[in-house]
Amino acid sequence: MNWQALTDWRQLLEWPGPDTDTVVWLTQVFAVVFLTVATNFILMRVIDIIDHFSSKTENLWDDALLEAARVPVRLLLWVVGLSVAAEMLQSVSESAIFEYVAEVRRVAFIAIIAYFLTRLVTNIETNLVDPDRVKKPMDKTTANAVGKLLRISVLITALLIILQALGYSISGVLAFGGVGGIAVAYAAKDLLANFFGGMMVYLDKPFKVGEWVRSPDRSIEGTVEHIGWRLTRIRTFDQRPLYVPNSLFTTVVLENPSRMLNRRINEKIGIRYDDWQVMPDIVAAVRKMLIDHEDMETDYRTLIVNFDHYGDSYIEFFIYTFTKTTDWVRYHEIKQDVLMRIMHIVNDHGAQFAFPTRTLHMHTDALPRQDDDGDDEPGDHDDGQAPSRRAARGTHRNRRDRRQGWKGEQDQETGDDDGE
Fold this sequence. Notes:
7 strands, 51% helix
């Protein structure tokens, strides 16, 4: 190498050509790469300083912009530096690979801009649903749907621009897509049904991520974890993932218990028939207890406490009321407290809770008592006809007792001493 050529610094400022000394253009390429690295380092420090000051503000847009631009700016700087170095090499070399430098640079610029926009959309989406950044966070499901649509739009637009930059006709591509779209739509009708089902979920918002949903038509119940364009992932209460195609939500009835305003307590309580006189006092005391209870919603919701039913072994009253909370665990704690207070009220009024009972009334006929030797007691058989009448009577009684389900021997053992 002719290191003497470096003594003339003006050659380093001239664009290299086929006649440029090797040491000169190598130095120029090295200088370009070194400046690229140095500029990249300085630029990152500047972005860090700006990010430090912007983090103290409450504006969420500057944070999203800086975070989205951090990586694309570095990539853009490297593309500029490397493309300049490649053009220098192209001017001193006859290699055909350097002929694609301009096209690669255009495609890289478009891809970096698309990458920046997708990152910006993602960061804005994250900030809008963060309660620490905004006073009224946006619904996560809506933000996710809008973010996905924007990212898809950016990617499709970037792809069409890249095709145009490479010399392809966009109109031809769109025409091909229109003709081929019919066949694709027919072949992928289930996929499109799920796509539009997901779109309806995003627009109608019957549920969102984190809510508890349940379908009485299908075995679907659990907490929504993710809403995709094809599937929705639901975590059941036994912690199993359930993947539901979105098209199913357009045909089934769906409940969303997470959006209930109150939880209901509907209980029936039975006391003994012997305590019927204190039933009005018990009902009135229970109603007053529910009205005074700090966790019961009785001002804007239905409250019913009434004597309701005659049971087989009890008389029954029922309570129909609502709690203020909708939390499942807290609801059961309140319900337990209410039921315990009702037990105290029943006990304070001297009443008792009923349990299933049955009373059996037994009816028996009297039979004459016989001596140990088998002779009847002295009485009416002196005429010789009494034994026959007694036998007939015993036969008649046994026949009647068999109809009642009792044996004749039992009547004889339990008969009264009526002298017959």
